[in-house]
Input
Amino acid sequence: MPTSSSARAKRRIAALEEELETMRQERGGKQRSTTYYVAQGRAIRRMVCLYSSLEDLVAENDRRYEDRSQDSTMEQDRWQRGYIELTRTLPWLHTKLGNLEHDECDDMLKKLKKGADAARGDDTSSLKELVATWVNQDFRPSPLVKPNDKHLRGFASDICGKLLCPAEWDWNSDRVKAGIRDRTSDYIVSENSWPLFTYENYSINRDNLEEGFLRSKLLVLAFKAIFTSPSSAKEVDGDGDGADILENNRRARRKSDQTKVKTCVRFALSSVSSWRTVDGDFDYEAFWNNIVDFFEDTPGPVARRRMDKLLEWWTRKIFGTNHREDLTPDIVSHMSVNQLAEQRKAMEDAVFDSD
Output
């Protein structure tokens, strides 16, 4: 049956407008999902793993449940611990991985990685300036460490060199200092040595290398700057102020958070201008793994208790002390809020009885 050309044109225009609106909605949905994944990914390099790829973590978790009989290497154990921490940090991820198609999973992981790497770049950039400021304030070196220039850091700087120096050597020795700067075979600076900046007061007890380890002021400043705010890093001599402790004190107890800070501080003190895995003989990824293993691979329950005390120290330094669990109903009943309520009720009852 013939129809008018204007009617056909109107219906065609309406169909095209509907198609265009559908395309806009799809594009908007994709943009929102991209923004969401990138934003969520910013937590990964801070709280899960600094180097391992997300694909490796997911693949290792799949491998363990596909073939439970296979033995695992140390690296595979790290990947599995990383996957578990990843699902704690992003609780929705495990279910999402099971529901999406393979291509969609790959796309999601790429977006998460984009956010993760961007956050790592932001943190290293911030610490580049902040670490210089803290070193200048505490040590007053001459010349001062320039906040915007890393070329005169590392072992070229006397104070940065001291903080980066392996704990087993004495930076004040001219022989040690020359050997490190000349990169002789007798003084190889690698991830197999703990840098002095990781120790409390930047000094060690050679008979007990665990004493004061991972309790330095520089590490606390860096942790606060990254995980709370740069302004909160102005004071670390006492305990934290307790702000948001109920919600946040778990963060200070995460080993991966602290491991990331130590790796980034080492990078900030070095003369390397851009993020890389290897700096001369020093392997940052191996250094990261050494710190994770220090927390995770304890020789027994006694060492485990020392690790728990260390994590409690970090919680207290960052977020202060909290005793809400000690507020029993009996204790609360004797506090002024309840006492005032009881007094008001008693006065009300007294007036009622007098009438």
Q: What stands out?
A: Residues 242-253 have pLDDT under 50 and may be disordered. The CA atoms of residues 143 and 280 lie 25 Å apart. The first strand starts at residue 278 and ends at 279.
